[in-house]
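My current task is to audit a protein record that another person submitted. Thanks in advance; the entry in question is below:
***
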Amino acid sequence: MAVVESKEMVFKVSKVSTTPIDGQKPGTSGLRKKVKVFIQPHYLQNFVQSTFNALTPEKVRGATLVVSGDGRYFSKDAIQIIIKMSAANGVRRVWVGQNGLLSTPAVSAVIRERVGVDGSKATGAFILTASHNPGGPHEDFGIKYNMENGGPAPEAITDKIFENTKTITEYLIAEDLPNIDISTIGVANFSGPEGQFDVEVFDSASDYVKLMKSIFDFELIRKLLSSSKFTFCYDALHGVAGAYAHRIFVEELGAQESSLLNCVPKEDFGGGHPDPNLTYAKELVARMGLGKSDSAVDPPEFGAAADGDADRNMILGKRFFVTPSDSVAIIAANAVNAIPYFSSGLKGVARSMPTSAALDVVAKNLNLKFFEVPTGWKFFGNLMDAGLCSICGEESFGTGSDHIREKDGIWAVLAWLSILAFKNKENLNGDKLVTVEDIVRQHWAIYGRHYYTRYDYENVDAGAAKDLMAYLVKLQSSLDEINSSVKGARSDVSNVVNADEFEYKDPVDGSVSKHQGIRFLFEDGSRLVFRLSGTGSEGATIRLYIEQYEKDSSKTGRDSQEALAPLVEVALKLSKMLEFTGRSAPTVIT
């Protein structure tokens, strides 16, 4: 480890006067705004100081903090500001991934697993990301704080942060501390009023790769990837996953360099939208044979994509899309046999409420503990910390396990490669490999199929979105009125038997989360769910989830949009989507 000579420079702590700035309420994914908002004077500083003030003193003074992110525009400036504020607030050391890059799952792994040369362990992290949202001078930036378990700050902390932002009058910063060269691995040492302060820049991938190798059978996966019959494609969408892709897939697992797409991290994600779905991962979708135009080139057997901070994933087979809801169910169904980490069994499984019930059926068949939680990874984290959950997932392309306390996109890809390697370990010299599509269809044959789609209406007028949701809540008071609307739209759709707002009582800490989504549950097991999403930086996003269960194996091969068309028609009429929003079509369909 190189040491940057700093001659034990003594820095001074400045108290800078400030005033509260409106709109600094962190959501389940932290604080996300346009870059132009974050670069306002004192904006970032107010939020960081409010976070320090929300933590107990031992989590700040003398502590070790991680500061890194997905590398989006403004990250490098933000890292320097947070380092200087950490020094001024009495933090003992800051760990920074080289070039400021650490995926969100890697941050969680570093907090939980990394031990410094002096025996130090991190107690928290500032993660700089706006996840799957675009980056660049005119796009999005974000910041969130993760706790000592590696997971997002709980509501008690984020509420304190928000309250602090409304009353803040000053922040502490070591303005004379020089900027750190975060491109070079090494340690910079300084002295301040409270003693020594160090900044260590470390390799972004090593700790995470070590963890992955302890979970999966890399040798078995390598045999699959080296087979002439198996072809592979991974698209990082110019996000931080690129900092791990070459190390894991090429160096460790022997994939061809040409199998990596868009794996150079860029501040603006190459001008694209780093959201791994069929709409935005255009290049991968085309390469996998799912584009609008036919390609003469035979698609790879397996494809996957990541979002900006590498916590989300999309799984594709040759000309075949795997829904995130099916993905987590299939991983859970095969984990004990295919993934060494789970060889002794699963503690339990969980999904977010809007996610399809495919995982429920697996849990019932395998006699596993099962939990349905609100959207937000912290709910899974509580279950995992209590030893109740091994594998979990959400329909928004997030899948993970109890190895960390964040969803983990590369973990999900390695889980799928493990399943494929296990299914084909005696078949690599045979006539035909077991494919992604084969695995999914075999799963449907055993457990039934949950036809599922999500309609996203992005950047809707916030007032109109709230009016639509209020209308649906009011409508729920009369099942007769609901079913009248249903039958008026489609007589072939079954009746609604229950309508409610999802509410969750945490079995671990007893906390209650209300207003977590509006549900319409049908007699035949179908569901309609409406939610307002907090992941955008402006306006509102209305998410509409549509699900229909089919256990007759002769009917599980239909086109999803065709099978769901009657329910879609009902949902749009029931919600008066066009009247409230003026939108005749969603922004994205997944």
Q: What stands out?
A: The longest strand covers residues 449-460.
